[in-house]
Every structure is written in structure tokens, then in C-alpha cells.
Design goal:
Layout lengths: L5 H22 L10 E3 L3 E5 L6 E2 L2 E2 L1 E5 L6 E5 L5 H14 L7 E5 L15 E4 L3 E3 L4 H7 L5 H11 L10 E2 L17 H6 L5 E2 L2 E2 H10 L9 H15 L4 H10 L5 H11 L5 H24 L1
Helix pairs in contact: 2-9, 4-7, 4-8, 8-10, 9-10
Length: 300
């Protein structure tokens, strides 16, 4: 990661303050949030992940340990605006389909929090996994993972959500592979989410309204294509044979069973952290994805 200059850091701090101010205004019209998907930073001790210079696309990471129950640990991402949003939504969708992903919490920063270890106000903690192999070959996955068929289901979700980053399925000591690091999913990227909550006039145009219009009018049907799914399935079948077909297609059936009430529930929580229109976008996106999945299976 390229280090930022003092001026860049100053600009990012100002952008963060503007986003927080606008979110406080939006939340003032809502009841107090109570959700098992939310934790308070004051309840945790944070330390840099070791080695301390390990930095990837998500920026520097932290380990969060609960002050009372030290066995409650999270891998914490905080440096980029898209990690918390995209990984929270991805996790809630995948878990609704009964696929293995670490449980996640959105971390709320109260006014009493004085520590300055967070790069943005958007912070997510993923349950810390005891990894025995962080990049297992498929032969290892098939031999040792209790859910080895989910490897193909994860590949389908990778294609469906438009991911383009590395595909990581580490093997944990509980015998399962997990899908991790899904920030690159969805068309909500770092630039959009860093700008979305900045409610100011720029050159006679309201910045927040501009991004709301741009996102809600996006042609989301172009974010996934049946040709993309067909390509992945063909590649996997050439390597693994017919055993990959059923688990690859399984998420397209399961995603259609995710209820509107469930989606509304986790998006309601997300919108206490991100602008409300981000929730509107994801509701529209998930609905379109469910429709696409149904049409794809029907055509098959």
C-alpha cells in the first residue's frame, strides 16, 4: 500500500467528519439500534496484526479481543470505506444460504472512544479463525474439509457477485473451509462509499444526491452475466469433472429462498453506519440477483 502524504490524510479526516455528521442526522430520525450484528469498540482491546507490516488491499488490520471474554476475538478491518459494507452484506447473504463464513459484527465507535487506531468510521470484525492452512490446494480441501463441495459453491458466488480479487478459502481447525476477504464483491467500491455520505454542495451540485442517483440508476443487470457463470462452470468441469456441477449451481437455487424480511433486517442495521440509500441499492441489487438466478436455472 502506498503511504499517504500529510495533505491526503488531512483530506481523508475531513471527509470522515463530513460523513459522520450526515449519518448522525439520518440516524436522529430513527429509534436506537439494537442488533446482535453490532458491537461497541469500547468493549475491545485492539492490537495490530502480526507481522505489523502485513498490509493488503484492505489496509492495516487489527485483532480485537473482548475485554472480559478474551476468547471472543475478531479480525478487524477499518482502513477502507468498502470493507465493512461489502463483507457484511456478502456474509449475511452467504450465511442465509448455509455457507461457511466467519460471523461478522459492525463496530460502533461511541463519542467516548479516544483511541485513534481506526482509519475510517466503517469498521467490521470477522470472527477470528484458527487457520491450519491459509491457501490449501483443492486436493487438500477434498481430503480434509468436511464441506469440500462448498468450494464450488463459493466459486459460483464469486462469479455472481462480480468479484475480481483473490479467491481465498482457508482451512480452519474445525475441519471446514471458509470464504474470506470478499470486499471486492458488488459494484460498491472504495471510491463510491467514501463519497456517498458527504452531503455538501460541489460546483452547484449536491455530492450525496449525485452518488445516490448514480448508484440507484446503475444498470445492475450488467454486473453479472450468464456467460461469466458458464465460463467458470466450464473451467471447473474440465478440472474436476461432473462432481462440481451440482454444488456450483446450488447457490442459484438457495439465493432465491432468502426472504425479503431477512434482507430488510440486515440492511436496516447496515444503514445505521452507511447512508440510507446504500440499503436501498442493496435491496434492489439482491432482488435482481435472485431474479437472475431463477432465470438462469430455468434456462438450464
Amino acid at each position: 500500500m502506498i503511504s499517504k502524504t500529510w495533505d491526503e490524510k488531512k483530506i481523508m479526516r475531513q471527509m470522515k467528519l463530513l460523513r459522520i455528521e450526515d449519518k448522525v442526522r439520518e440516524n436522529s430520525l430513527k429509534p436506537l439500534l439494537s442488533s446482535p450484528d453490532v458491537a461497541n469498540t469500547l468493549d475491545f482491546v485492539f492490537s495490530p496484526i502480526k507481522p505489523s507490516d502485513r498490509v493488503g488491499d484492505s489496509g492495516p488490520l487489527l485483532i480485537g479481543k473482548h475485554k472480559i471474554n478474551r476468547s471472543e476475538r475478531y479480525l478487524v478491518k477499518h482502513a477502507c470505506c468498502d470493507c465493512a459494507c461489502n463483507e457484511f452484506v456478502y456474509t449475511k447473504i452467504a450465511q442465509a444460504m448455509n455457507y461457511k463464513m466467519p460471523d461478522v459484527v459492525l463496530l460502533r465507535v461511541p463519542p467516548e472512544e479516544k483511541r485513534r487506531c481506526f482509519g475510517t468510521e466503517y469498521i467490521i470484525g470477522a470472527k477470528y479463525l484458527n487457520i491450519i492452512n491459509d491457501a490449501p490446494a483443492f486436493s487438500t480441501i477434498k481430503e480434509r474439509a468436511l464441506n469440500w463441495r462448498e468450494y464450488f459453491s463459493f466459486r459460483a458466488l464469486y462469479a455472481l457477485t462480480g468479484e475480481g480479487d483473490s479467491f481465498e478459502t482457508p482451512l480452519a481447525d474445525d475441519g471446514f473451509i471458509y470464504r474470506v476477504d470478499t470486499t471486492d464483491a458488488f459494484p460498491t467500491d472504495e471510491f463510491i462509499l467514501s463519497q456517498a455520505g458527504i452531503n455538501i454542495e460541489v460546483n452547484g451540485r449536491n455530492n450525496k444526491e449525485f452518488w445516490e442517483s448514480k448508484l440507484l440508476n446503475m444498470d445492475i443487470n450488467n454486473h453479472w452475466q450468464k456467460d461469466n457463470l458458464a465460463w467458470w462452470l466450464n473451467q471447473l468441469a474440465q478440472t474436476h469433472g461432473k462432481e462440481c456441477i451440482a454444488p456450483f449451481l446450488e447457490p442459484l437455487a438457495r439465493i432465491q429462498d432468502i426472504s425479503t424480511e431477512y434482507v430488510d433486517g440486515f440492511l436496516h442495521t447496515l444503514c445505521y453506519f452507511y447512508p440510507d440509500f446504500i440499503g436501498v441499492f442493496f435491496k434492489k441489487y439482491i432482488s435482481a440477483l435472485q431474479k437472475f438466478a431463477g432465470e438462469y436455472l430455468k434456462a438450464k
